[in-house]
């Protein structure tokens, strides 16, 4: 057998493509590429039209069970990228130069001496460990390593039981006609008079039942320890006062107007972002926009908590408020939709 280097066989003869020898076919391929790029441009324009046409969260805004906004934006952007990719490939295959080019490649392998030293060190390590002649150790090691995957599966139980309908309700609904649930300042638990707030004021709030459960017929043990944190995480609220003329009343889940959900320009919304559940309270006073610091989702508190920017897919849930006989702000009833981010069991358009 030969021991010297193999002779360079050279490159095969170049095969001319139809577009290389026929100007008509070359022009046709050029037009095809241009059409593909044009279709990409049309898809991009369609993306922009869809962005400004389809509103987020309207019940009519559904295509095949999916949000029309999501479907339209995803489809048009996907087609825009697809047409560019196909156009570039077609351009390369039909029109770009296709002569093969070769260059010398220097060996990247280590020297024979280095390779021998590395192999010998590995062999010595295996021999010294005795894993080859001690099957008991080898098999028990493999069994132990294999079982390490089970804790990850078992720890899934720490996620707890399915919440059922617990995410649909908060303690705000525990108020009664005789004792409507008061809105109190978070941390100091003082009730709030409508006259306490000036235009532009934003207040972080909680339900009074977390501090005075007996007033609402609630067992105090239900608002202690972990239960207290659960209630606070779901019931956290923000109040914002604005000019009443700036408010655009939306519709409740039952289709009725939210015109009576405010008090002298004071609106109440869940403090929990509908994207991934971050607490939010960064207020843009002149626009009534509330910004989430985690991923910059922005909600318009003058327009039913509508999403105006960012990844959040649903408006902030609004709480209907009024005043009691003493003039303190109270909740009319619970939120009419689940608070926080979406979850599997929830209808995306449930309001």
UniProtKB/TrEMBL annotation:
Compositional bias (Basic and acidic residues): 14-24
Membrane topology of the entry: Multi-pass membrane protein
Region named Disordered: 1-24
GO MF assignments: 2 iron, 2 sulfur cluster binding; metal ion binding; monooxygenase activity; oxidoreductase activity, acting on paired donors, with incorporation or reduction of molecular oxygen
Domain of life: Bacteria
Entry's transmembrane regions: 33-54, 66-92, 136-156
A Gene Ontology term for the protein's cellular component: plasma membrane
Entry cofactors: [2Fe-2S] cluster
Localization per Swiss-Prot or TrEMBL: Cell membrane
Broad class of where this protein is predominantly found: membrane
The entry's keywords: 2Fe-2S, Cell membrane, Disulfide bond, Electron transport, Iron, Iron-sulfur, Membrane, Metal-binding, Oxidoreductase, Respiratory chain, Transmembrane, Transmembrane helix, Transport
Function: Iron-sulfur subunit of the cytochrome bc1 complex, an essential component of the respiratory electron transport chain required for ATP synthesis. The bc1 complex catalyzes the oxidation of menaquinol and the reduction of cytochrome c in the respiratory chain. The bc1 complex operates through a Q-cycle mechanism that couples electron transfer to generation of the proton gradient that drives ATP synthesis.
Family (UniProt): Belongs to the Rieske iron-sulfur protein family.
PANTHER family per UniProt: CYTOCHROME B-C1 COMPLEX SUBUNIT RIESKE, MITOCHONDRIAL
Protein name, entry field: Cytochrome bc1 complex Rieske iron-sulfur subunit
Annotated organism of origin: Nocardioides simplex (Arthrobacter simplex)
